[in-house]
Amino acid sequence: MDKYSRVAEMLSAKGIKIFENEPLAPHSTFRIGGAARLAAMPDSTEMIIDAVKAAKEEELDFIVIGNGSNVLFSDKGFDGLVIFTRSADSVVIKGNRVFADAGAPFTKLAVTVKNAGLTGLEFAYGIPGSVGGAVYMNAGAYNGEASQVVASSTAYDDLTGEVRMISKEEHNFGYRTSVYSQNKDRLTVLSAEFELKEGDSAAIWETMQDLIRRRREKQPLEYPNAGSVFKRPQGYFVGKLITDAGLKGYTIGGAQVSEKHAGFIINRGGATAEDVLRLVEHIQNTVHEQFGVSLECEINFKGKR
Ligand SMILES: Cc1cc2nc3c(=O)[nH]c(=O)nc-3n(C[C@H](O)[C@H](O)[C@H](O)COP(=O)(O)OP(=O)(O)OC[C@H]3O[C@@H](n4cnc5c(N)ncnc54)[C@H](O)[C@@H]3O)c2cc1C
C-alpha cells in the first residue's frame, strides 16, 4: 500500500470524506486547475487536525483550502492532500463575541451577526471566502479588515503538533498578511473569535447593501475570477496603473485583464493556470517598465508550474 492509500484509509476510518483524483477547478472561484491526488472534506475542526496529522505522518504534501476564492491551482493539480475546510462551519454567538470555525463563509457570517444586531463585519459582506481564508489573508474592504475584529484564533501548529490560541497581537496582521501567511505550511486556522459591537440591524443591513452595490458596479462578477490579483502598492491604484499601461482587455489564452476593473483577471472560458501566470508576468513587466512600480501578486498559486 502506498502513502496515498494509507492516508486515505486513515481518514476514512475517522469518518472523513475522502476523494481520489478530485478535480480542483470546481473548488476555485477561478474555475482553473488540475486534480488533487487526494482531497479531504472534514466536517469539524477536530477532523481538520486529523487530516493534517495524517499527511504529516506519511510525509505527504498538503494544503488547506477554504472557499478557493484567492487561489490559482496549477494545471498539473496537486500531488498530495488538499484539505477543504468548508464543512467545518459552526458559528456560535455569545453576547458581542462570535466564535466561527474556519470553514464558515465570511459573507454568511456577516449576515448572521447583522441578524444578531452586531456591527463590525459589514465589510465582509461580498468577500467570497471562509473565516480561515479571511484570517490568513487579513481580508478587507471599504476601510474594514479582519484585523479590526479578530480577538483571537485557534491554530493547529504542525511543527509542534499542538493546538494553540493565537492572541490578537500574535496575529501580526498587516496589509493582506498575518502570522498564518507569514508561516506558510505550518499553521492551520481552526477557528476565530470576533469581538463586535452592538448596533442596529436595519442600519447595518443598509451599509451592507451599499457595499454590495458598489462591488456589483465595479467588479467583473459575471466571470470566474479570484479577486484583486495584485496588492495595492503604496501611493498607487493597481487598476489605474494597469489601465494606463494600456493593458485593459489584454488577453493570453482564456485569461483576460478585465475591461470592467483592470485589477482583476477573468477566466473568459477555458483559461489555464499557465495563461493566468503568463498574463500576471506580462502585467508586472509592463507596469514596471512604464512606471517603475513593482506589483506583488495577492493570489496564492498552489502546486507546481
Ligand atoms: C469576486 C471576489 C471579490 C473579492 N473581494 C475581496 C475583498 O474585497 N477583500 C479581500 O481581502 N479579498 C477579496 N477577495 C479574495 C478572497 O475572497 C479573500 O482573500 C478571502 O479571504 C479568501 O478566503 P478563502 O477561504 O477563499 O481562501 P482560499 O482561497 O481557500 O485560500 C487562500 C489562502 O489561505 C490559505 N487558507 C485558507 N484557509 C486556511 C486555513 N483554515 N488555515 C490556513 N490557511 C488557510 C490557503 O492555503 C491559501 O493560501 C475576493 C475574491 C473574489 C473572487
Explain the overall architecture.
The chain is α+β, with helices and mostly antiparallel strands and 305 residues long. Helices cover 29% and strands 28% of the residues. The protein is built from 8 helices and 19 strands. It has a 5-stranded antiparallel β-sheet. A 4-stranded mixed β-sheet has the order 1-2-5-3, with helices on one face. Strand 11 (150-157) and strand 12 form a beta hairpin. It binds flavin-adenine dinucleotide. Flavin-adenine dinucleotide binds next to strand 3, helix 4, strand 9, strand 13 and strand 15.
CATH topology of the largest domain: Uridine Diphospho-n-acetylenolpyruvylglucosamine Reductase, domain 3
Mean pLDDT: 97
Which stretches of 5+ consecutive residues score pLDDT under 50? none
- What is the architecture of the largest domain at the second tier of CATH? 2-Layer Sandwich
Heterogens: flavin-adenine dinucleotide
- Strand order, main sheet: write it out: 6-7-13-11-12
Short account of what is shown:
The protein is an alpha+beta fold and 305 residues long. It is 29% helix and 28% strand. The protein folds into 3 domains: 3-84, Uridine Diphospho-n-acetylenolpyruvylglucosamine Reductase, domain 2, CATH 3.30.43; 91-203, Uridine Diphospho-n-acetylenolpyruvylglucosamine Reductase, domain 3, CATH 3.30.465.10; 221-302, Alpha-Beta Complex (Uridine Diphospho-n-acetylenolpyruvylglucosamine Reductase, domain 1), CATH 3.90.78.
